[in-house]
Amino acid sequence: MSENFTLDSIILPDIKIFQPKNGFRFTTDSILLAGFVKDTTYKKVIEIGAGTGIISVLLAKFFKIEKIYAVEIQKESYELLCKTIEVNNLQEIIIPVNIDVKEFKPRENVDMIISNPPYRKGDTGYTSNSEQKKLARFTFSLTIEDIFKFSKSYLKTGGYLYLSFIADRLSDLFQYTRSYSIEPKRLKILYPEINKKGRLAFMEYRKGAGAEMTIEPPLFHKINGVETEQFLQHIDPQWWLNKRR
Q1: Average pLDDT value for residue range 114-141
Q2: pLDDT at residue 60 is higher than 80
Q3: Percentage of the chain with pLDDT > 70?
Q4: Which of 55-59, 93-97, 198-202, 232-236 comes out lowest in average pLDDT?
Q5: In the 8-state DSSP scheme, what is residue 175?
Q6: DSSP code of 13?
Q7: Which segments constitute the TRM5/TYW2-like methyltransferase domain (predicted)?
């Protein structure tokens, strides 16, 4: 693979992520999703669409997790994922898997599944010419129902599913819950400004849980053009260190 990539630090200087220079690069969405994860014990985890590893690495660094299967279909991203795992010395925890999740059959059920899935349907809006960007941000290879099907099969009863999704399509995140016995438990919405519509929804589900759900206070990125303390804490090293279990 040609060295057409960057190596960037996130949260702490010793947490490094390889990224393509011109392909899909992670945004704060991934950091916010990892930060949304409930502070509890997760022994085994699967990340669907791991990209180059930002969410898996944050989970491995700040939670006591025994094993994370980081599933990534795109070959170039998978190669950088492997480099990310190595540079962070997480080979004993994170297992990279280069496969379509619809074909992935883990030998054990897990405590948590997490995904920052495609934001737009493949037939709507602008589509990039880059195959990597298409696979990272559009439902050419993965649908929300695929995630629920997989989670029903491989999530332990009582296990957690975490998703982030564009707020305009929030209804998609409720469409399959009852049919796959995975109930929504928490919802937080990210707003770009105090007077703007919601941009991104973060959802927590539990397999086999009851029907009650908590709607958390809104998260505002900016107020009057200034980034909020509430938003900035999610990239503050001390906030993450306080989460460390």
Answers
A1: 51
A2: yes
A3: 87
A4: 232-236
A5: H
A6: E
A7: 43-120
**DSSP per-residue string spanning 58-115:** HHHHHS--SEEEEE---HHHHHHHHHHHHHTT-TTTEEEE-S-GGG---SS-EEEEEE
Reported as a single tens digit per residue, the pLDDT across 196-240 is 999 999 999 999 998 899 999 999 999 999 999 999 998 899 999
Instruction: Say whether pLDDT at 84 is over 60.
Output: yes
**Separation between Cα atoms, residue 178 and residue 207, nearest integer Å:** 10
The DSSP symbol for 205 reads E
Residue type, 59: L
How far apart CA 202 and CA 68 sit, in angstroms, is 21
**Which residues are CB-neighbours of 104 under 8 A, at least 6 positions away?**
69, 71, 97, 150
- Alpha-carbon distance of 18 to 4, in angstroms, equals 10
pLDDT at 85: 98
Question: Dihedral of the CA atoms 234, 239, 240, 245 (nearest 10)?
Answer: -140
Q: Tell me the domains of the chain and their CATH numbers.
A: 29-243 (3.40.50.150)
CA-based nearest residue to 81, from 62, 98, 65, 93: 98
Which secondary-structure segment (H or E) carries 162? Answer: strand 155-166
Three-point CA angle 70, 125, 80, nearest 5° = 25
Q: Which of 82, 21, 7 is nearest to 50 (CA)?
A: 82
Of 36, 219, 197, 200, residue with least CA distance to 117: 200
% of the chain residues with pLDDT over 90: 70
Q: What is the pTM of this model?
A: 0.89
